[in-house]
Amino acid sequence: MGVNLSRGPSRDVSREPSAIRVEIGELVLDGFRVDPERVSAAFETELTRLVRLHGVPLAADGPFAVDALSGLPPLPAGLSARRLGQELARAVHEGLSGHGEVGR
Description:
Largest sheet: 3 strands, antiparallel
Distance between the termini: 9 Å
Strand content: 15-25%
Number of helices: 2
Helix content: 25-40%
Number of domains: 1
Structural class: alpha+beta
Order of helices and strands: EEHEEHE
Shape: globular
Oligomer: single chain
């Protein structure tokens, strides 16, 4: 997983980034009976919303890469695809906010 920030042409680090890109190589859904495409769409929508609203605190000093996020809360298997995607995005954003354990 990687996070890249773009600060625009001036490279003024005191400004807020003009773009944040989060790349997630693989999202594994063991034990869930949901449509992975719907989970992925809900995940992307919610993670985008959270990043726009709260940013990515771990990336405050510039681009960084994370191999894995661990220590995240378990999720109930009976969630709908939309709700599962939202909860996964919240858990990932919590990890990118410095909560949980980050493997670099």
